Amino acid sequence: MTDIDPDRTVDARGAACPGPLMDLIGEIRGAESGDIVRLLSDNDQSLTDVPEWSEEAGNELLAVEEPDGHYEFYVEKA
Amino acid sequence: MTEHVVVVGGGTGGTVLANDLADRLGSEIDAGEVRVTLINDDPDHVYKPVWLYVAFGQREPADGRRPLTEVVDDAVDLRIDRVTDLDTEAKRLQFRGGGPPIEYDHLVLATGSTLDRDRVPGLAAGGHDYYSESGATALREELLSFTEGHLVLSVVGTPHMCPAAPLEFVFMADDWLRERGLREDIDVTYTYPIQRVHGNPHIAEWARPIMDERDIQVETFFNAESVDPEAETVTSMEGAELDYDLLVTIPPHAGVDLIAEAGLGDDGWVDVDKHTLEAAAAEDVYALGDTAATGVPKAGSVAHYQAGVVGQRIASEVRGRPATATYDGKTLCFIETGMDAASFVEFDYETPPSPATPSEKLHWSKLAYNESYWLTARGLL
Q: What residue numbers bound the domain in which A63 lies?
């Protein structure tokens, strides 16, 4: 388990693609530079969507966890 | 005792549902056992798909408006007012007009989408849209005088109403400009927030080659962060900057504040069971259409089909029977691919879309449906 302490969490569990990524983008849009956003998703597509977008946008994907049948992505806003 | 069914919102979902209930529960309404009230803050019913055609001078805003009194069954009580407070414990609604509060036994929220242009700095001043009556008429004037330069269509956020409409706009604009001999002097660019040109991968896979063939430039992973109306540039969260001469956007959407204030969901979308459409956080509350967070498109066909499901469920509940009707995610969309051709998709929770080969017949089918929509609103089609 990571000890990263997120500033914001967005729960997109149950959302179909591209809902989780759009929820993450929406949360990052309102975040400050340096904020860490945690995205909760149970959509496998997020495993490719989130790293691709994070790289494109210059944000850093700090960690991906998989507790209790869902994924948790920790993304730091550039 | 009279059971009171209250529907908030007189768009497609709310209106179809109110008429469905008037028909389905006609005998109970006649006997005074059931009362159905439809609440809307506008005396007119508005059919939004007309606006796409307004932008190209093919329809007038009035073609998409009719008084609710002409559309809604006389057995339904119509109240024109704005709901300002919803108490799901007391089952009570209060109104901006200051009239008496209403208590309900069954509540359906069909409050729809609103545009949130202010979420992106400069968007309101620099961008045009066809997602509102005033936006569509202003865009029509811009398009009529636009003879050279860079036309940019930017999808600023999702979810938004009618996910097919951004594709339709660039396909129609491309064709319209070619017909007018202007296309060689106007570049067209389409931007989308994720790594493909549409949220649904099957539709994206179908649409991308058409864009390439038509010389429509594409920018993916483009999330507009700000618009500079003076410099005529739009900058993305990903660090890209686009110059434009005419910027058309799909503005960010949100539901009404009432939903979050009542604790029913974030951003104005009600958290629901995607099959029963029952609200997760309150008893005897349904949501449908744009308002229900089901993951399916915010489209009129969805609201139409969901209204049938909710109508059946409420009728069962009123009659003391188990409600068995469920929504399977059914969605139908026509997709214009030019000024005289269209495709068509049908899908649900389990079955992905497979866009039909574009044809003139499908284009005329879409226009014919737009005319016959008023039968849908009245619960007849």
A: 8-76
